[in-house]
Amino acid sequence: MIRMLASVRDLDEARDAAQAGADLIDLKEPGAGALGAVAAPRIAHVVQSLRAEHPGLPISAAVGDLRPGDHASLEYRASQVGRCGVDYVKAGIPADSASFDLALRSLTYMRSLHWNMVPVLLVDNGLDLRIVERACELRFAGVMVDTASKRRGDLFQCVPLAVLDSMVQIARLHNVMAGLAGALLSKHVPLIRALGPDIAGFRTALCDGSRTGRLNAARVRDLRAQLLGSARAANDTGFEVRAQSAVA
């Protein structure tokens, strides 16, 4: 089953998403970048409330947008977020071929931290599958892909389907959760279902207006139903969905 991650900015949105059936609550501030950080006191308040109201519901939080290789800032921010009691701490890493060496150093450093880190591979300039392979070898609980700039297009405009399929397959071979995100909309559900990741992350599709708008619980409920729905759902994206088995 594909689990639905709902990105929220505060307790009201978190409660709405949880009550509407989201499988994982992800705290980030959409007005502060792709992985904008929510203030630590707010994270702690959300965690405390959801633990009481929805025990067992996983919670993640982003550390904010970082300069590549800024390990000191990563450690400080990860500590701030981790101490709030979240299950996963997310941090972004550029994942294109030109960033290969930097990505590997960042992954190794991230794995050394005390917290349960989940690397978010930023794929605006492409996805080098060697970085996915290394992240899985390091035994992170999960690996996600996302886009840093929502103006440049959605995930499927940045990364070919075959490459995304290989990413999911690599993670599966290593028993690591694979997550897809990046301006995903309702029209992308057939593609997401065909790829079969463990997690599909949404913000824009859940909001009234843009991703900085208010989360709408009805949208959460509807999109989760689509994820769980018939495999015969119409594909109106223009892409041909085909099973991909080769790991590039």
UniProtKB/TrEMBL annotation:
UniProt keyword annotations, A-Z: Lyase, Schiff base
Catalytic residues identified in the record: K28, K90
The keyword Lyase is assigned to this record: yes
SUPFAM superfamilies hit by this protein: Ribulose-phoshate binding barrel
Classification via InterPro entries: 4HFCP_synth (IPR007565), RibuloseP-bd_barrel (IPR011060)
Signal peptide: none
EC number: 4.2.3.153
GO molecular function, one term: lyase activity
Pfam families noted in UniProt: 4HFCP_synth (PF04476)
Reactions performed catalytically: 2 D-glyceraldehyde 3-phosphate = 4-(hydroxymethyl)-2-furancarboxaldehyde phosphate + phosphate + 2 H2O
Keyword Zinc (UniProt): no
NCBIfam families: PRK02227.1-2
Function: Catalyzes the formation of 4-(hydroxymethyl)-2-furancarboxaldehyde phosphate (4-HFC-P) from two molecules of glyceraldehyde-3-P (GA-3-P).
Protein name: (5-formylfuran-3-yl)methyl phosphate synthase
